[in-house]
Amino acid sequence: MPKNKGKGGKNRRRGKNENETEKRELVFKEDGQEYAQVSKMLGNGRLEAMCFDGSKRLCHIRGKLRKKVWINQGDIILVGLRDYQDAKADVILKYNPDEARNLKAYGELPESGERGEIIGLMV
Questions:
Q1: Phi/psi at 121 (nearest 5 deg)?
Q2: What is the predicted pLDDT for the residue at 12?
Q3: In sequence order, which residues have a C-beta less than 8 Å from that of residue 99 and are 6 or more positions away?
Q4: How high is the pLDDT of residue 117?
Q5: Sequence-separated (6 or more) residues with CB below 8 Å from residue 54
Q6: Which residues lie below 8 Å from residue 33, measured CB to CB, with a gap of 6+?
Q7: CB-side exposure of 56: number of CA atoms within 13 Å?
Q8: Does this UniProt record's set of keywords contain Flavoprotein (predicted)?
Q9: d(CA 70, CA 103)
Q10: Which of 49-58, 76-85, 103-112 has the lowest mean pLDDT?
Q11: Which residues of 12-35 are buried (b: 16+ CB within 10 A; e: fewer)?
Q12: Where in 65-112 does DSSP place strands (E)?
C-alpha cells in the first residue's frame, strides 16, 4: 500500500461550512402556514409537531432540508399546512434560537399560557 502523503481527503477538499454566522432575514408565516414546535422525531424524514394553533400534526421534512438542516426535539419550525389533509403538514423552515426569540418579541409566538411549558423547551 502506498504511504499517505496528503493533507486530508475528500472532506478537506469540500471545505468548511462558513454560512453559519451569516444573518438571514426573519421569515414570518403567511396564510396556509403555521408555527410549530417539534415534539417527537419519528425517523424517515418525519416528525410530530405541536402547532401553535393547538393541533398536533405529522410533519414531513422536505428534501431541501433533509440532510442540510438538522431538526431536533424542541425546535421551532414553520410548517406549510395541507388543504386536503388537516392532520399532516410539510416543514418549510427551521428557526434558530435567536430567530425564535425575535418571533416571541414580535408577538408571533405566544409568550405563555396553555402551551407555555412547551415554549420553555425552546430557549
A1: -70, -30
A2: 72
A3: 26, 76
A4: 47
A5: 114, 115
A6: 78, 79, 80, 81, 92
A7: 6
A8: no
A9: 20
A10: 103-112
A11: eeeeeeeeeeeeeeeeebeeebbb
A12: 76-81, 88-95
Question: What's residue 18's pLDDT?
Answer: 63
- Region 5-15: mean pLDDT is 71
Place of cell 417527537: 40
Domains delineated in the chain = 30-115+117-121 (2.40.50.140)
Answer yes or no: are the C-beta atoms of 57 and 87 closer than 8 Å: yes
How many Cα atoms occupy the beta-carbon half-sphere of 69 within 13 Å? 15
* Alpha carbon 67 to chain centroid, angstroms: 12
Q: Which helix (H) or strand (E) holds 99?
A: helix 97-105
Supply 46's cell numbers. 418525519
Residue for grid cell 425552546: 122
